């Protein structure tokens, strides 16, 4: 599985560096604390490289929340306007193109290696120094191949680590083996010494294939289970002989396609024909093992796979469909946050960028445990969202409720809340005397309907807010009001 076959006697053609470009971007990130406006724009400089089909790859974080992306060729003083085709936040890869034919003159696409490099192989990283128009080249040895946390996308995928220090401007740039084949993309630091991780070719090819297959980035799928390793005593209680290996399913997300097919205490013996060890690893290249989540990450949304399980001392095989949509999405696809305001209560849908904005880089520690418990949950329907009161714009109408922050809204006037659109529609079309919001922890917010709607306009004026709802909600509410 991915064993490297080194080609002796060949060297990297230096002309491959002509396919490496400088990426300049103006970013205008959303303001999750005040979703009716955006943050102050800022500039960034990074690296990209040309692949087949007149396309360029770089990091997702290099162009996230972009308003303008420009590319510059090596040795050129011309900036070319780029179009962003896809942003894969989970894998930190973005795909760009340029309409101007002159940009592609003399450009040859970078070729990807068929196999992963092996430990101690030499890797050459090519990129642009920050604010400079010339290329820097750094060489290092491959130090690790393992499943790692992708910081930008809040997910875990295969990653490489090299022992060389690089300039931050190299992010998004290619890493080559000795024959000039691309084996990865620089994307995040390892430590304060500027040593870096690389996105390896299996992840890169998955991103490209996903775009070619679906016309957009759809993400990496999940099985929707929690599992535990099988220790000796536990193996005995599960009726496993010495020749049987696997992992025990602890929990299955109720909204996952596997729910009702697999069951808690099933022992997964193999995933799509690949045996799973007692510690949850699978064979990965000679004398190596890796977490079996690697196998899942190689699949695509909607793929059907065969899971072999041990259940009540009997072996079964089940067809299971993989899903990638999560209740709390890992990215916002560049859109401004949706929001709805009534009587100073600001409602929004939770996402990982929202949690990051509210609680910082350590959101997975500092955020409320009831929100964190839902990070890996899947929605019960395609349009389900986790809606919260993000803040209260203090006014006499909401006095006493001002400490409510990030409490999930479960129901409105007794009706379950499916998403932010449905909540806004129910409130806007409510003719009852009271507005009653049921929150988690059995908390209730009750307001007089007429007074709440009248107060909203004054509150918007006081806080200089242009609208009581985000632009994406307006067409939906107009449609509902005409039905």
From TrEMBL:
Keywords: Hydrolase, Protease, Serine protease
Coiled-coil parts of chain: none
PANTHER family referenced in this protein's UniProt entry, alphabetically: PROTEASE DO-LIKE 9 (PTHR45980:SF18), PTHR45980
GO molecular function: serine-type endopeptidase activity
Family membership: Belongs to the peptidase S1C family.
Naturally occurring in which organism (per UniProt): Acacia crassicarpa
InterPro entries, sorted: DEGP_PDZ, DEGP_PDZ_sf, PDZ, PDZ_sf, Peptidase_S1_PA, Peptidase_S1_PA_chymotrypsin, Peptidase_S1C
PDZ domain span: 224-278
GO biological process: proteolysis
Entries under Pfam families matching the protein: PDZ_2 (PF13180), PDZ_3 (PF17815), Trypsin_2 (PF13365)
Protein name: PDZ domain-containing protein
